[in-house]
Amino acid sequence: MVVIAALAYTAWLAWQVQRDLRDAESSAFDLRTSWTSGDSGSRDEAEADLVESAAAAQHHTSGLWWRALGHVPVVGDDARGVAAMSRSLDVIAQNALTPLCDTVDKLEGLIRNGRIDLDAVAGLEPAVERAYRALTVADDELAGLDSSGYVGALRIGFDRYAALVDGLRSGLASADEAVAVLPTMAGAEGPKNYLLLFQNNAEIRATGGMPGSWALLHAEDGELSMARQGTAGDFPTAVTSVLPLTSEEETVYGDELGLYFQDPGWTPDFPRAAELWHAHWDQRFPRLPIDGVVALDPVGMSYLLDGTGPVTVDDVTLTRDNAVEELLNKPYVEERPVAQNMFFAKASRSIFEAATGSLASPMAFVEGLNRAAGEGRLLVASFDGRVTSELAGTPVEGALAGDDGTTPHTDIGLNDLTGSKMSYYLRYYAEVDAISCRGGVQDLAGTLTLKQVISPNQAASLPSSVTGGGKFGIDPGSQYVMVRIYGPYSGTIDQVRLNGRTLEDGLIHELGDRPVANVDVLLSSRKDVLISWRGRTGPGQTSGGELSVTPSVVSGTDRRPFGTAC
Question: Do 552 and 428 contact (CB within 8 A), yes or no?
């Protein structure tokens, strides 16, 4: 009888917790919806419901009975996972919700009529910092837990919740940094000029895309303006590199890295690319100094349209759903080169004016900025040392990792060698796995799969403004891609294969104590092309690693962690 009662109580308790967590999830969804819509009444109700549900879940999983379940064979790890989720959720509800809601309230009117309210920005800092600290504690509650042994539904729910908390923490970390540097960058201490580059993913570069279009942004006491616009053609080819290149850079990239305004993005290290663009700018406009370089791609621009609302350019209405096609493909299929440049310039200015005007949804706009930054589509390099220090290690810095302690990094940069806009039809997917660990060194195995998403017949019918017209010896409709694989700091790349064929070791070089493999790939059909490689981490790199890949025309990112084998 006692056993039956114990089982019944356990089942009842589990049902209560399941109900609490389900109610919390529903309230969180309602809260998110109210933030975007600006419905304060619904927001207050959802906030109260979430606090109540989180407290109930934490209460039901903090008692002696639930703790005892954590030591029962088979179900123990599940019970510990549920308890950790409940504690984490309660931390967020008790300590993060109020400052988060305060922050959302203050976003309204933060940017209006081309001006950032710098006093309002300063007022955000305490709330953002409080919310970030709370999310860090909530994230720590989940640290070290392995969900692979949980029952199916719990595993899915736990992983989804852990990803959400990590994303919120990361987003608040970025917001905390942004609040710290925004006044300085917006001209609170004096006028600032920034070179804004629009990276065209249809002609891919390791930083995102070829900077075919640019604008000069002027910031003064929070007021933002687009002072002038132009194209990459405004910058002549340098006679010699605009900055000295290291011998390693010359070996890996060639002297093109420093000769052409279009090519600093061959390196995935955005701070280095920004130095080169800065030098190009100084040679072309010596009397107009700049204070930094900002890069944004059209996919990132499309995210911002959720916050600005649709933007009309000529007779085209740009929305989140169609902006990428309208900016990266249709102009090259339908327009002449001059018309392409004019349309993109108009679109850039229109989106800028919408972003600095009265936003349709400030919350959605901030989320768009955060998503663009997290996917490597929004990059910022400041030439102010204080700002640079604040941005160090953040996604917008876009730096190629060096020595990161116990964490190994693998980076993959893609560059178009066709001189075309065929990267619009390029798709790729990368994976890295740690397969063994010996003596503090992990063995890694990686793959990169590439293909075109149009048939040869479809590709052959495209105009030369898309295909490049064979001007670099590539048949129209095909594309030639240079792939560079950057192994871990002080690690190795020991073997590279292309469709199963081992490539010569001479393709592997060193760059800043990181091995780099250069692989040329010709794509002409929907058939997969597979690059695979083996390598090792540096000594002592025993933690899980980070994989980063050039962002493409497809929303989302290939930036992801990989597990440790140690």
Answer: yes
In angstroms, the CA 556 to CA 268 distance is 18
Distances (CA, A) of 88 to 27, 93, 474: 16, 9, 55
Q: How many CB atoms lie within 10 A of CB 32?
A: 14
- Tokens coding 550: 């050039």
Phi-psi group of 278: left, alpha or beta (phi > 0 → left; psi -120 to 50 → alpha; rest → beta): alpha
Pairwise CA distance, residues 148 & 156, whole Å: 10
- Between the alpha carbon of residue 146 and those of residues 18, 149, 155, 160, 281, the distances in Å are 20, 7, 9, 13, 50
Least Cα distance to 146 among 138, 134, 154 occurs for 154
Specify the pTM: 0.90
- CA 118 and chain centroid, separation: 26
The model's pLDDT over 223-247, given as tens digits with 9 standing for 90+, comes to: 999 999 999 999 999 999 999 999 9
Q: Are the beta carbons of 357 and 351 closer than 8 angstroms? A: no
One-letter identity of residue 412: I
Is the predicted pLDDT of residue 382 greater than 80, yes or no?
A: yes
- Distance of alpha carbon 511 from alpha carbon 132, whole angstroms: 35
pLDDT at 50 over 80: no
Q: How far apart, in Å, are the Cα atoms of 453 and each of 30, 87, 374, 464, 466? A: 38, 46, 26, 18, 14
Mean pLDDT of 399-417: 96
- Give, for 141, the enclosing helix (H) or strand (E): helix 118-142
pLDDT digits (tens, 9 = 90+) for 243-282: 999 999 999 999 999 999 999 999 999 999 999 999 999 9
Check residue 93 and report its DSSP letter.
I
In the chain, the amino acid numbered 80 is R
